Amino acid sequence: MNETPRPLPPRLLDVTTFVLARLGRIGRAEMGRVFAGHGLAHWHFAVLTALDDAAHTSQRELGARLKIDPSDLVDVLGVLEDAGLVVRERDPADRRRHVVALTPAGRTRLDQLSQEAAQADGALLTPLTEPERRAFEDQLRRLLAHHDPAAPFTPAADTPASPG
Amino acid sequence: MNETPRPLPPRLLDVTTFVLARLGRIGRAEMGRVFAGHGLAHWHFAVLTALDDAAHTSQRELGARLKIDPSDLVDVLGVLEDAGLVVRERDPADRRRHVVALTPAGRTRLDQLSQEAAQADGALLTPLTEPERRAFEDQLRRLLAHHDPAAPFTPAADTPASPG
DNA sequence: CATATATCAGTCTGACTGACATGT
DNA sequence: CACATGTCAGTCTGACTGATATAT
Questions:
Q1: Is B15 contained in some domain?
Q2: Which stretches are annotated as coiled coil (chains A, B) (predicted)?
Q3: Per the domain annotation, does B43 fall within a domain?
Q4: Which of B 8-27 have CB under 7 A of nucleic chain D?
Q5: Which residues of A touch B23 (CB under 8 A)?
Q6: Count of the separate structural domains present in chain B
Q7: Which of B23, B110, B151 sits opposite A143 (nearest CB)?
Q8: Is B53 part of any domain?
Q9: Comparing C-alpha atoms, which of A82, A81, A109, A87 is closest to residue A99?
Q10: DSSP label at residue A88
Q11: B45 to each of A62, A71, B51, B159, how far by Cα in Å?
Q12: Exposed, middle or buried, A42 (CB in 10 Å: 0-12/13-18/19+)?
């Protein structure tokens, strides 16, 4: 019973980046468990969301949007294809390309995964009040938009408009 | 010039855990660059903070506090020892143990690293106003405390006390 | 002999690199 | 032939697993 968790060093907890990164890892791990319940992993979900957003996409385009290496994308798509969630066909217009698209089963699965992901988000943010949560998520998205040009900031619908 | 970064899929950005994890990775990478400027990495900094908090510690105790595997700790301490930042000696009271402690040079280096880490934090949180930043950091620490028992929440000194 | 500590060697994963076959 | 696309094989890292030498 002497397995009391030792506290982390204060000067480490002083570093916000450290706190953020550690919380990110916790959330990512939990999300991984959600996807694993469907025999999938993070990248599979990411690919499904990308295909939902842009119906027919080449693998190269998918890789560019998600910043997944094309070589790694091969296996990810293989799993999704074997599971019947996507189809991968030669582009008749340019036979170098593979055109990837969601199947109906893929769309259904994406909806399930999105719902479970939202529940996991809720569990992660459980200590926050509703207004706190809204502010926190808003700030998070602003920060990501500032540091990652691929993440445009779209203010929440019920957020008071900024001046302009 | 067609290298315009493609936006991430909206349904992916809807997942707060994803946004959080991605921002965590960005911050962690930047922090890694800071430490690399001193020939060190994340774990080296973490070990220094732990030794600052608890002056003389066995490797086992260090591993337990930082949740770094004892086997991985070996090399981390080796680097710090070679750099003259820590000393590692047999515990005369129990010769199985190594007692690790900061050297004066280690303390100086820790102070440098802490300062640079604070600057990196500032850069990461640059889009936030001062009150936003305080609230954001407070919420982040509450969330981590909720999900990681090793991270006790100590409210900031100038934070209004919660009801109770 | 059972346990604790530190160490070493090997594994597993995610992300990246380089080579290459196919097609434009 | 130069270039684009997708694929495969290998590397590098961080975190974990198992075995071992030393000491209690």
A1: no
A2: none
A3: yes
A4: none
A5: 20, 24, 140, 143-144, 147-148
A6: 1
A7: B23
A8: yes
A9: A87
A10: E
A11: 37, 34, 10, 28
A12: middle
Residue B3 has pLDDT above 60, yes or no: no
Q: B164 lies in a domain? A: no
B-proximal residues of A, 96-125, CB under 8 Å: 110, 114, 117-118, 120-121, 124-125
Over residues B37-75, the pLDDT tens digits come to: 999 999 999 999 999 999 889 999 999 999 999 999 999
Provide, in whole angstroms, the distance separating residue B107's CA from nucleotide C5's C1': 26
d(CA B67, CA B62): 8
Give the mean pLDDT of chain B: 90
Instruction: Check whether residue B41 has its CB closer than 7 Å to nucleic acid strand D.
Output: yes
pLDDT at A161: 45
Beta bridge partners of B102: B86
pLDDT at A159: 45
Cα B51 to Cα A11, B63, B96: the distances in Å are: 10, 12, 19
CA atom of A110 to C1′ atom of C22, Å: 33
What's the pLDDT at A100?
A: 97
pLDDT < 70 regions, chain A: 1-4, 153-164
Structural domain boundaries enclosing B96? 29-147
In tens, the pLDDT along B107-135 reads 999 999 999 999 999 999 999 999 999 99
B6, B28, B49 ranked by CB distance to A9: nearest? B49
* B16-26 pLDDT per residue, tens: 999 999 999 99
Inform me whether the C-beta atom of residue B135 falls under 8 Å from chain A C-beta atoms: yes
Both structure tokens of A10: 């204060």
List residues bridging with B88 in a β-sheet: B100
- Global confidence as pTM: 0.90
pLDDT of residue B6: 80
Residue A62 sits in a domain whose CATH number is: 1.10.10.10
